[in-house]
Automatic annotation (TrEMBL):
It comes from Herbaspirillum robiniae. PANTHER family: 4,5-DOPA DIOXYGENASE EXTRADIOL-LIKE PROTEIN. It comes from the Bacteria. Residues 41-242 form the Extradiol ring-cleavage dioxygenase class III enzyme subunit B domain. The keyword Oxidoreductase applies. Keywords: Dioxygenase, Metal-binding, Oxidoreductase, Zinc. GO terms for molecular function: dioxygenase activity. This is Dioxygenase. Belongs to the DODA-type extradiol aromatic ring-opening dioxygenase family. InterPro entries: Extradiol_dOase_DODA (IPR014436), Xdiol_dOase_suB (IPR004183). It holds the Pfam family LigB. Its cofactor is Zn(2+). The keyword Hydrolase does not apply.
C-alpha cells in the first residue's frame, strides 16, 4: 500500500492486547497485528485509547517523546526491558482535546502519563520501527458504551487527516478464568458464544442492542466482570465513518479465556478484508 492511499479514509481499529505476555508470545495475534500495520496506508500519527489509563475526565497525552510504562507486576524480567520509543505529538494532543471540548466532552492535555502496555504492546507489532507518532487518550470506565461511541464520533474527522484511531482492549477479559500456564489452551465455549452474539448484533446494525450488551448478551458479566477492556470497542465503532461496515479479524484466544479478536470499522475496512484472519 502506497502513501497515496491516504486519500482513502482510514478505518478505525479495535485490537485485543490480552496479557502483557503478548509482547514476547506473539501467538496468532502478533502476526495479525503485523499484517494490519503492513497493509494499511502509513498513518501520519496514531491515537490510542487504552483501558489502563483511567481518568474521571478525558486526558490526552502530550509528551514530545513517549515514555513506556511497565504497568504490571510478576511477569518475566524480559518484559521490563522492552521499550517503544515512539515520538509524541503535542500539537495533535491539543487538537484532540479541542475536538472533544467542542463536542461537549470535558478534556485536556496531560503530560503525566506515557504509553502503557495497552498501547505499546500492540504497537510493537503494528509499527515495530516506532517511527509513527503515538498519543494516548484516557478511558472513562465509569461511563457507558454510548459515551465512548460519542468520543469516537467526535474524533472521526481525524481519519481524513491520515490519523489512525485505535481502541485497545480485550474482546473478553476474565482474569480469574485464565489457564496461566497454557497460552494455547482451546477457546472457552462461553467466550465464543459471547462473540457470536456480538457479531449477530453488529451485522444487524443494532447499535442500541450493542449498547445494552451487559444485560442481554450471553455471559456478558462472566466474560467482562468489569467492562473497561470492551469499552474501547465502542470508541472504535464511533470513530468510523460507517461502523456498520466492518471486518472481523479472528485470532482466537489465549490462555483459554482471553479472546484476541480485532475489528476494522468503516468504509476503508475493506483494506483488511484479504488478511488471513478476516472472517
Amino acid at each position: 500500500m502506497t502513501a497515496s492511499a491516504l486519500d482513502h479514509h482510514l478505518p478505525s481499529l479495535f485490537v485485543s492486547h490480552g496479557s502483557p505476555m503478548l509482547a514476547v508470545e506473539p501467538g496468532r495475534t502478533g502476526p495479525l497485528l503485523a499484517g494490519i500495520g503492513s497493509t494499511l496506508p502509513r498513518p501520519k500519527a496514531i491515537v490510542v485509547v487504552s483501558p489502563h489509563w483511567e481518568t474521571t475526565t478525558a486526558r490526552v497525552g502530550n509528551l514530545l517523546k513517549q515514555q513506556v510504562i511497565h504497568d504490571f507486576g510478576g511477569f518475566p524480567q524480559a518484559l521490563y526491558q522492552l521499550d517503544y520509543p515512539a515520538p509524541g505529538a503535542p500539537a495533535l494532543a491539543e487538537h484532540v482535546a479541542r475536538l472533544l471540548r467542542d463536542g461537549g466532552v470535558e478534556a485536556g492535555a496531560d503530560g503525566s502519563w506515557g504509553l502503557d502496555h495497552g498501547t505499546w504492546v500492540p504497537m510493537r507489532y503494528l509499527y515495530p520501527q516506532a517511527d509513527v507518532p503515538v498519543i494516548q487518550l484516557s478511558l472513562q470506565s465509569h461511563m457507558p458504551p454510548d459515551y465512548h461511541f460519542r468520543v469516537g464520533q467526535l474524533l472521526a474527522p481525524l481519519a481524513r487527516e491520515g490519523i489512525l484511531l485505535v481502541g485497545s482492549g480485550s474482546f473478553t477479559h476474565n482474569l480469574r478464568e485464565l489457564r496461566r500456564n497454557d497460552p494455547d489452551a482451546p477457546d472457552a465455549p462461553h467466550t465464543v458464544e459471547f462473540l457470536h452474539w456480538f457479531l449477530e448484533r453488529m451485522r444487524a446494525g443494532d447499535l442500541q442492542g450493542l449498547f445494552g450488551y451487559r444485560t442481554t448478551a450471553p455471559h456478558a458479566v462472566r466474560t467482562h466482570p468489569s467492562d473497561e477492556h470492551l469499552l474501547t470497542l465502542f470508541f472504535a465503532m464511533g470513530a468510523a465513518d460507517d461502523w456498520t461496515q466492518f471486518v472481523h479479524l479472528d485470532s482466537g484466544s489465549t490462555y483459554h479465556s482471553l479472546r484476541m479478536d480485532a475489528f476494522a470499522f468503516g468504509s476503508a475496512s475493506t483494506l483488511l478484508a484479504q488478511l488471513p484472519a478476516a472472517a
